[in-house]
Amino acid sequence: MEGDHGARGGADNQIMQMPHGPVGMQDKLDSSSHTPSTIIESLPKSVKRRVNTLKQLQVKCAHIEAKFYEEVHELERKYAVLYQPLFDKRREVVSGAVEPTDEECDWHSDRDDEEELAEELKKS
């Protein structure tokens, strides 16, 4: 098995070092004479067409995303107006500026429901 791994490692290394392999491609990209536009210009016509199509699709996605965030912003503004009175009231209660009414203090918890159910089961 070790011999197989060594043989595979040698083949992998050969592929990596081939001029058209990953290292060769990276060397071309790293060269200072290549800019993104010159790299794209060197691609086959079919690949350039795909790249241009992908760019157009990306622009369309960006426009949809911009519209989405505009609508999110409008929703946030709408609900901020609805939340504000609650936030103001909460600040007054926390600071002690106002004391809550008996009705405001009445809190029905899930634990109360559980206790009621337990009592009903005991009666059965």
UniProtKB/TrEMBL annotation:
Residue stretches spanning the membrane: none
Cross-referenced PANTHER family: TESTIS-SPECIFIC Y-ENCODED PROTEIN
GO biological process, one term: nucleosome assembly
GO CC term, one of those recorded: nucleus
Family: Belongs to the nucleosome assembly protein (NAP) family.
InterPro entries found in the cross-reference section: NAP-like_sf, NAP_family
Gene3D superfamilies (UniProt xref): 1.20.5.1500
Region (Disordered): 1-39, 97-124
UniProt organism field: Aldrovandia affinis
Protein name in UniProt: Nucleosome assembly protein
A Pfam family this chain is assigned to: NAP
